[in-house]
């Protein structure tokens, strides 16, 4: 019985739309490529970060901190303007996707 409950919970998690979203699609739709480059390593401005291959937990923390206003230094004003477009689950998907981009 426990196995069935665990399996059902896992299936439910996998069916959550944001978790099932494709990272590449989100990266394009949420305008990440506009500033960080299509490959995450050719930013629009020289002082914007190259994000390809960065640690997923670090990326997620930075996006969360910028979205909440906890981080508001450097170029965060540009990011703050688009972070309202992503929810917490999408941030996880984006962080995972970007972490797997070739640096």
> What is the residue-mean pLDDT, rounded to a whole number?
86
Termini separation (Å)? 45 Å
Number of E-state strands: 0
Task: Return the string of H and E elements.
Answer: HHHHHHH
Oligomer: single chain
Q: Describe the largest sheet.
A: none
Total helices: the number is: 7
- Helices and strands: which structural class? mainly alpha
Measured by DSSP, the beta-strand proportion falls in under 5%
Portion of residues within helices: 55-70%
Stretches where pLDDT falls below 50 for ≥5 residues?
A: 4-16
Radius of gyration, CA atoms, in whole angstroms: 15 Å
Global outline = globular
Question: Would you write up a description of this structure?
Answer:
By secondary structure, the chain is mainly α. The protein contains seven helices and no strands. The protein has helices at 2-15, 17-20, 23-29, 32-36, 56-68, 76-83, 88-99. The protein is globular, with a radius of gyration of 15 Å. The model is unreliable at 4-16 (pLDDT under 50).
Task: Write a short abstract of this structure.
The protein is 61% helix and 0% strand. The chain is an all-alpha fold and 103 residues long. It has helices spanning 2-15, 17-20, 23-29, 32-36, 56-68, 76-83, 88-99.
């Amino acid at each position: 019985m426990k196995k069935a409950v665990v399996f059902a919970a896992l299936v439910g998690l996998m069916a959550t739309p944001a978790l099932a979203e494709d990272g590449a699609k989100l990266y394009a739709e949420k305008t990440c490529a506009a500033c960080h480059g299509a490959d995450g390593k050719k930013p629009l401005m020289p002082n914007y970060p190259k994000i390809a291959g960065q640690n997923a937990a670090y990326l997620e923390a930075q996006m969360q901190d910028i979205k909440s206003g906890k981080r508001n230094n450097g170029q965060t004003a540009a990011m703050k303007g688009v972070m309202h477009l992503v929810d917490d689950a999408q941030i996880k998907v984006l962080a995972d996707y970007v972490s797997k981009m070739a640096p």
